[in-house]
Amino acid sequence: xxxxxxxxxxxxxxxxxxxxxxxxxxxxxxxxxxxxxxxxxxxxxxxxxxxxxxxxxxxxxxxxxxxxxxxxxxxxxxxxxxxxxxxxxxxxxxxxxxxxxxxxxxxxxxxxxxxxxxxxxxxxxxxxxxxxxxxxxxxxxxxxxxxxxxxxxxxxxxxxxxxxxxxxxxxxxxxxxxxxxxxxxxxxxxxxxxxxxxxxxxxxxxxxxxxxxxxxxxxxxxxxxxxxxxxxxxxxxxxxxxxxxxxxxxxxxxxxxxxxxxxxxxxxxxxxxxxxxxxxxxxxxxxxxxxxxxxxxxx
Length: 299
What we know:
This protein is of the alpha/beta class. The chain has helices at 43-51, 87-96, 102-115, 131-143, 161-177, 189-195, 213-218, 236-244, 263-271, 286-298; strands at 4-12, 19-27, 32-36, 58-63, 72-75, 149-153, 181-185, 198-203, 206-212, 224-231, 248-250, 253-257, 275-283. It has three domains: 2-67 and 148-219, Rossmann fold; 83-146, no CATH class; 222-283, ACT-like. Chain A, domain 2 (Alpha-Beta Plaits, 2-Layer Sandwich). Its EC number is 3.6.3.28. InterPro entries: AAA+_ATPase, ABC_transporter-like_ATP-bd, ABC_transporter-like_CS, ABC_transporter_ATP-binding, P-loop_NTPase.
């Protein structure tokens, strides 16, 4: 049985058409799900619904009957730490509120603080920390009680690579080894691509894709970005023609998505005006694939 099931879930903000519509998927133990989409696609709205901050206006969200609200670990995009508590007490509060004893809460706090490198800040107040350090405190409080379902909205905001990598390694271990469930949104699409085994792709509040990350990337494995370097002066007419076809022009280079143009035609037109010095290709990553799909969907 799925840990989490959404069926035709919709939610719209009052007086607007902004929100999400008819979202349906099942999430199971061991799923590490990337929730992706451009700004305004509905990522935070969905995660707020899963967190219980909002209630669906249509459809249903159900969890395994074995789980309770204490089995959730929630880190919203908007900071929710308590400014009147020091760092240690902020994190420990996350454990105490789920019913752990004082001794268990202290041990759990020390464990997650060690992972997120927060023990040196135990006696500090949150307002004396940097934005990235505050973010780590919030994430630590969400994860301190080792929840079965982890819902993290932009958990790496303000974090450098070291801490982002460490957090994703931790989540990977929890999902793949301990069979917990994580749903994570992040602008760090490279990190999501490297670590997550499933992807939920939202576009304008609609569910564009849900399934295996590998299958999603493999479906685009023949799609490449071509970059051509050249010497010489290109005419304004050719520049406009290339831009109209979706090419990106930079100093002495032109790049484009292979599947969107006639490669031989472009090479012929370039050779008529300039000298091609090199040409290379690179498989698209998650970021480029998302941009391409959104442009196709909105065309």
